[in-house]
Amino acid sequence: MPDVIDHRPNRQPPSQPKRDPAPSRLQYRLERMWLRPIWRRAVRVGVPAFLVAMTAGLWLSDPDRRALLTDGVQQIMTKVQSREEFQVRIMTVEGASPVVDKALRAMLPVDLPASSFDIDLTALRLQVMQLDVIESIDLRIKPGGILSAVVKEREPAILWRHARGIEILDKTGHRVASVTARDVRPDLPLIAGEGADLAVPEALALIDAAGPILPRVRGLVRRGERRWDLVLDHGQRIMLPAQGALIAMEAAIALDRAQDMLGRDIAVVDLRNPSRPVMRLGIDARNTIRQARGEPILGPDGKVIQEDDRKGG
Amino acid sequence: MAELYQTQRAMRNIRRAALQRGVIGILDIGTSKIACLVLRFDGTGTFRETDGVGPMAGQVNFRVIGAASTRSRGMRRGQIDVMAETERAIRTVVAAAQKVAGVRVDHVIACLSGGRPASYGLAGEITLEAGRVHDHDVASVLAACDAPDFGRGREVLHAQPVNFAVDNRSGLGDPRDHVGNRLACDMHVLTVDGDVIGNLVQCIRRCDLELAGVASASYASARASLVEDEQELGAACIDFGGGGTGVSIFVKKHMIFADNVNIGGQLVTQDIAQGLRVPLPVAERLKTLNGGVEATGRDDRDMLDTGTGSGEWDADRRPVSRADLIGIMRPRVEEILEGVREVLDAAGFDSMPSQQIVLTGGGSQIPGLDGLAARILGPNIRCGRPLRIDGLAHQFTDPGFSSAVGLALFAAHPQDEWWDFEMPAHSYPTRSLRRAYRWFRNNW
């Protein structure tokens, strides 16, 4: 109740609008809709996202503005990328032979100095790894604008003669380079035959085991992509088994040491069956035996020389 | 009856769906105020020890996350009088409770205090073919209860099996797997006016809410304010409301009687307004702040401010003593209590083993009411407050909110009713499902 009551004749009636506390049906429904989490999320996230997307879309719908935007972005990017701090000036190559060094420098897609953003180290590394001679490469851009390449080359271990030429292989059998003749690398042992490159470690072990007869070894021949023949000079050959070739090889060397086997006229030592070594005698030895027995001697082709032939010849 | 069975079953399903979603609303539509509680069901059932709320009556698996109450509008004698006004009041209270809770309420459980409730005790009996009580036997004995003619347009609000008897063993709560030849049951049926409940359904539906259950207000307030022993041993709960006074009698944890006396606190307010010639809001304020039923000598000197704001000195500064106010209130309160006495006599409360009477409801806060009631109703009187439930704010814990709290307990753990049992297959009418579906679509 007011303390002072206005009794003046021209007083205004108290204007107190009798407000209904009840929400209107629309307001009630809107409130309930707003209490739905999905609706609330849609309004709070969806509407601003939609507005931003629509504004951006409208602004970008003009090709001139789009070109302006892309140009601006491009300019800023080039400006940042061509800063002094990002320039690569020199390239250092460590651990590479002069040929590989030259090839690496030629492979660099850009001319130095260039921005380090223009050098894609991963792609360059993949490209360099295509070279057979390179086993691994560590490419990095060092502070001071240096593109450093630390190269580890494959070491030549063996020569492989095959139908298309002669190749140098490393100790795992990977190709290192091609050579035109065997005389280019006389220090490397020689292997031959199809599939010989797949068994290079075994071949290297066999050649290591061949120690005392190494000066006589001409090379190893892969037979049927499963076993080795050790070829010596004077047309001698040691046929090794597919399994346990090294043991057979040591047995052959022990025989040679004990009885000077390889110094005799023996064409082939067949160790393919380790429990039953077989030897094929040379033609002179057989003829000597035949003469002693009084049999007709054999010709170089292994056939018996007929009397009339000899007469005629 | 089959149609009612289907609709009540549908409401039970809606309640189950609401519990699965975890949020259910409680709507106590009274004559003087409307209260809305928003309950969140955790589903864990873990007991949280918060200031004195114990795990007593199965109220542990929910907490109140929003509560609001507002002045009721458009209600008269516990019934909807002006539908649009009541709808606005429901919108107000639901919007306020939702705002507090921060979640949307889709399913509500409401209570109904008016509608001339009438209780019936029904009895049914079947013979057991199997010699043992199975689930379907319980359903068929409930279906075998012979229903009297409830009258035109009456709807069944509660139909609770109160007692089961197998052969001559009576007083069984759960007769399943008992061996015997004869199964009998007593069922308590509470009917109300179908139009009243239809109006309530319509009103709630217009607020975009789905009804997940209806309970009688006197039942709900008794569940909240009678302690477990009183429910077990037998007690009467008197709910002094604004438009009417609800009476319900419990024994063995089941309601066996409910009725309504059509005089309430609003009539007291009217009397004060007429007797003291003050407007109704002032009369309400005087009743609430200064009311009482026992006058003492001091009350003659206790002058009340009737500030009506009319601007006239005589009207505004009229001396009214508190004894005058008590002199107006007391005969009305006595009349209400006499009505309650008649109802209790009609129900045969005198022959009950326990004569405990619990007063609750907003009107039970009148000072000295328990002394007056003890003189009229009987010696065992106490003023009951609703059970403490988790998360309910302090201003909602007074006796006026006992039916809201009771409805919350009803939402959490409804007692078994007839429609919780599968109806025996032979009593399905052929087209009942389709009719129930059509009724559901047309009315809900």
From TrEMBL, chain A:
This protein's UniProt keywords: Cell cycle, Cell division, Cell inner membrane, Cell membrane, Membrane, Transmembrane, Transmembrane helix
Family affiliation: Belongs to the FtsQ/DivIB family. FtsQ subfamily.
Record region (Disordered): 1-23
Bilayer topology annotation: Single-pass type II membrane protein
Gene for this chain: ftsQ
Protein name (database record): Cell division protein FtsQ
GO CC list: cell division site; plasma membrane
PANTHER family cross-referenced by the UniProt entry: CELL DIVISION PROTEIN FTSQ
InterPro entries the record matches: Cell_div_FtsQ/DivIB_C, FtsQ, POTRA
TrEMBL record, chain B:
Keyword annotations of the record: Cell cycle, Cell division, Cell membrane, Membrane
SUPFAM superfamilies hit by this protein: Actin-like ATPase domain
Annotated membrane topology: Peripheral membrane protein
Any GO BP annotation: FtsZ-dependent cytokinesis
Domain SHS2 residue range list: 24-225
Transmembrane segments: none
UniProt cross-references to InterPro entries, sorted A to Z: ATPase_NBD, Cell_div_FtsA, FtsA/MreB, SHS2_FtsA
Self-association state and partner proteins as the record states: Self-interacts. Interacts with FtsZ.
Function field: Cell division protein that is involved in the assembly of the Z ring. May serve as a membrane anchor for the Z ring.
Recorded family membership: Belongs to the FtsA/MreB family.
Protein name, per record: Cell division protein FtsA
